[in-house]
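Students often ask what a holo structure prediction actually looks like on paper. The answer is less mysterious than it sounds. You provide the chain, you provide the ligand, and the output is a string of discrete structure tokens encoding the 3D arrangement of the protein together with S-adenosyl-L-homocysteine.
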Amino acid sequence: MSASVPADLSSFLLRRIAERGFITIDDFMAEALGHPEFGYYVTRDPLGAGGDFTTAPEISQMFGEMIGAWLADIWAQMGAPSSFILLELGPGRGTLMADIVRAGKAAQGFTGAARVHLIETSPALREKQREALEGYEVRWHDDLSSLPADLPILFVANEFFDALPFKQYVFEGAAWHERVIIAQDGELSFSSIPVRHDPAQGMRLPQPTEGKVLELSKAREAYLAALLARLKAQGGAGLMIDYGHLKSGYGDTFQAVRDHAFSNPLEYIGESDLTSHVDFAALARLAEKDGAQIYGMTRQGDFLLKLGIGLRAAQLSQKADTAQKEIIEKALHRLTHSDEMGSLFKVMGVGYAKHINPAGF
Ligand code: SAH
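The corresponding structure tokens follow.
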């Protein structure tokens, strides 16, 4: 191997930092998660007990069943098209989509009309998805550009937008600076560089005070804009679910998770999941400007309870033994309670399907 080929992600990043003296947080995150050879999502299945974190569909089938029921209801209200794109962005192990197509069978014609399309960059996770969806015809895409252009779309994105890169700005000495990562003697640390523009422009935030942090994500906005362009042209709607806030504000939410615990984002690079909270308000502003409808924005717990997850839990419990009953009860609590995922996670319904009355909001 040539000496100029980096042996791992850290040496690759140190070299990139050496080029300009720093790397921005969004570029750092894009490489740490998505580097084609060493990136976190490229090299592993990060989910579940043996992985680094757990997500709602991995906690219980009830989550996917509620999402499936929501999508099937919208499909029916759209006039039950005989063929449509059932799209998931960042499907992880494929568990959510498997639960959606299974639960969707309760709505006559829904699963049969669904053409399953998955947007996934990780080869390791594509393999898991293939296994989870055995028996279904599935198409994979690296991004939205290769999706068929002639069918309406119903989509879901659970913990997808939080994995897309974001920038941080910090208000220091009465001026905005961009937070960046520098290297000293091979050790990474945070620093900041002055910016000329006002990153908070148009956000209607209170005047910042010293030390306030603002997070912006062009990558998330660009992804949503591309998705909305498809929905506008082809018709359709869907759900974005993520941890985040319903109002824009200041705050540092840069988070690294490894082995089910928080870690330092500058350690274990490529071996920890990096995210930040999704600013749903910013995404909703963009969608509304685009002419899309926001069907609702709410907390995950409220959304799932309105869709009847409590009844579903009771129904499953009837056929369960004591140990299973306890598992169902715990899962219900984790998904809906405000001490768990119920409040932190938010749900936004968005789309171009008109004259529909979406459930759950
Ligand atoms: N939705 C799943 C997994 C969430 S983890 C669940 O709820 O369990 C994030 C998912 O997004 C993973 O499948 C990851 O590989 C995928 N992903 C991350 N960045 C991506 C990108 N830029 N393009 C496509 N998929 C991406």
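The mean pLDDT is 96.
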